[in-house]
Amino acid sequence: MIEVIEVSPRDGLQNESVLLPTAAKVELIARAVAAGARRVEAVSFVRPDAVPAMADAETVMAGVERRPGVSYIGLVLNRRGFERAVAAGVDEVNVVVPVTETFSRRNQNAGAEDLMRMAEDVAARAVDAGMPCSVTFAVAFGCPFEGEVDPRRVVALAVRAARAGAGEVALADTIGVGVPAQVRSLVGAVREALAGVADPALRMHFHNTRNTGYANAVAAVDLGVTRLDASIGGIGGCPFAPRATGNIATEDLVYLLERSGLRTSLDLEQLVDTARFLGEALGRPVPALLPRAGGFPSPVPA
């Protein structure tokens, strides 16, 4: 079973020029859950002036339906964000730490080491609160400002996150520059380092900016990774990364996985319907291909 973590309500919407009303965000989350999503990155607790699309995080959390077996994730960037997430009733938190100094300062207005210490603090607090915590390392495959990233840096940070109590470590190709050979190398190095420290789950977050996101996802699955982020419609990107485009699309990923004989919890037809809903809400077609092409074999003759 491949667990697909749905990130369209957060990483998807944060980079859109159209700000959806709270009711539409709640409906998007409800549709994702109805389609079979069991972990949904629903909101982020950041400054409204920095990311206006996430200004209503508490209101969104107040509006989502609580269902057994469904976990709502809140992204946090600091201790204050963690406190807001706990008060809003998220089920788990995800802390983002950029790997490079320049991206850290552009994205979060703080140094990379300061942000890593913050992540360690939040992970420890989450452990004390009995709340699952993941740490996502942004620009782990390449930085728009500094270029190539030393994998040893990523490995060292992953070890620190595990030691601090993170139950999950995510490697993010924030700007979509990675290729399968890089995935194989980095996943292998991180796994080897973590084996002697702790046993956090490994999760991957790919963008399809240069059309390598799905190939990278297959490479990760071939290595035994069972947790992948994806965004319905393929929307999203990072507002602080130049020319960043969307995440890999949930429906396109599910088609790829299931046609390859791998199971997910997701219903393809409902995902496609939700992508169409999202496109109408945003006022433009979504980047994903399945809403245009349909699955195969098609349940309805063309």
Automatic annotation (TrEMBL):
Where does the Pyruvate carboxyltransferase domain lie?
2-272
PANTHER family on file? HYDROXYMETHYLGLUTARYL-COA LYASE
Keyword annotations from UniProtKB, A to Z? Lyase, Metal-binding
Q: Which organism is it from?
A: Pseudonocardia aurantiaca
Q: Which InterPro entries match?
A: Aldolase_TIM, HMGL, PYR_CT
Q: Family membership, please give it.
A: Belongs to the HMG-CoA lyase family.
PROSITE patterns hit by this protein: PYR_CT
Q: Does the keyword Cell division apply?
A: no
Name the coiled-coil region(s).
none
The lineage, from the top, is: Bacteria, Bacillati, Actinomycetota, Actinomycetes, Pseudonocardiales
Q: Which CDD domains does this chain map to?
A: DRE_TIM_HMGL
KW Phosphoprotein (keyword) present: no
> What is the protein named?
Hydroxymethylglutaryl-CoA lyase
